[in-house]
Design goal:
The chain has about 240 residues and is mainly alpha-helical. It has 10 helices and no strands. The chain is elongated.
Length: about 240
């Protein structure tokens, strides 16, 4: 597989080029490198493991097919994150019409917040995080995506803007509006908290060890989608094969 192919020193862009040229393992190496972070973003954006897994799968299928349209105008990881966020937002908009309750099941919440942590994690910390995610689920999708990237995943505003394909000012505005909506919700939800002084989402979540669904086989090769630019390719998220 990819690890046996000696890809250690190969850049993401070169891997994508090799994939386009027909290397059967190159795209699998790209997935191996970035899957955990894509999964974390999808899970925190959607709040549902099955929806997140489907969104990541949709995004990877779209990226696999559209690789030949990548123009190098952004980093490969930015391109992949943009596709994934758009796939998540597509799913979130569809889910909104079904009016499913936002993340309120205890087991789902424990899996959502810190999938790599054991059950022995401090109860107070888990409770605060449950409250944070319940409040996060009440935000409009665009504000939620911005806050997930900036406040939870720790991306700089400029990088989040590239991922979301919007101006940096838009990201700042969405984050500010989202934080303003979260603050009263969290104040109400945390009456027993003993101060702490931390603003909601100020901490940066760890990425190491994030639980990821088993990798699927690379999608079978087929005719690629076409598009004029990196940004245009990913508008509307990933489509199903």
């Amino acid at each position: 597989m990819a690890e046996d192919a000696g890809y250690g020193g190969v850049s993401d862009k070169d891997l994508l080029a090799r994939h386009v040229e027909g290397d059967p393992d190159a795209f699998g190496e790209i997935v191996r490198r970035h899957r955990d972070r894509l999964w974390a973003v999808a899970l925190r954006t959607l709040g549902d493991r099955e929806e997140a897994a489907d969104a990541v799968q949709d995004a990877l299928v779209s990226a696999y097919r559209a690789a030949h349209t990548f123009r190098g105008q952004s980093a490969v990881t930015t391109w992949l994150h943009r596709i994934t966020v758009n796939a998540c937002l597509d799913r979130a908009r569809k889910a909104a019409s079904r009016k499913t309750a936002p993340v309120d099941d205890t087991e789902r919440l424990e899996q959502l917040l810190e999938p790599h942590e054991s059950a022995s994690a401090p109860a107070e910390r888990n409770d605060v995080q449950r409250q944070l995610f319940e409040a996060l689920g009440t935000l409009p999708h665009d504000q939620r995506a911005a806050l997930v990237l900036v406040d939870m995943q720790g991306y700089p505003v400029a990088e989040a803007a590239r991922i979301l394909d919007v101006p940096t000012g838009t990201v700042k505005s969405r984050c500010a509006r989202g934080r303003a909506r979260l603050l009263p919700l969290l104040t109400h939800l945390r009456p027993e908290s003993a101060g702490g002084g931390k603003e909601p989402g100020a901490g940066r979540n760890r990425m190491q060890g994030t639980s990821v669904p088993p990798a699927t086989e690379s999608p079978s090769r087929g005719p690629g989608d076409t598009g004029p630019s990196d940004s245009a390719v990913v508008k509307g998220g990933g489509g199903r094969a």
